[in-house]
Amino acid sequence: MGENKNFKELLAEVEAIVFDVDGVMTDGGIIPLADGDFIRKYNAKDGYALAYAASHGFKIGVISGGFGKTLEQNFELFGNLREFAMLEAPLLVGISRKSMITKTLGINASEALDGTVVLNTMALDRGADILRVHDVKEASHAVALWRAVNNKL
Question: Is 59 among the residues known to form the active site?
Fold first, then answer.
């Protein structure tokens, strides 16, 4: 980016907006529910701004680790990844060595490679476009095999 460009010229060079939803779209506020769970407070203006940016050709990327609070909620969310297709944006899944693997299998994170590879492959089947991983070689093998099975070589 050049030093002598104005804001509009710099903005014209932006192709994508990627941010962590926690602390960007939220103000840290929560709404407690009767069952002990909570809902994060969002500013509606942020949602409108994202929709406006997307309608003007910007690619939007949202990162968040704060969805499911229980093991059951994590698996429910994972099982419904296809629902994110409605956003018409690339879906990034970061399941590598997460507690939903270790708690379910009764292992520690250093033993979670097999479970990670299985869930990464399942994430691809459920529409994931990008995998955030710790074990690149193993993940790349899973992606290559998934592509071969799905004729996406």
Answer: no
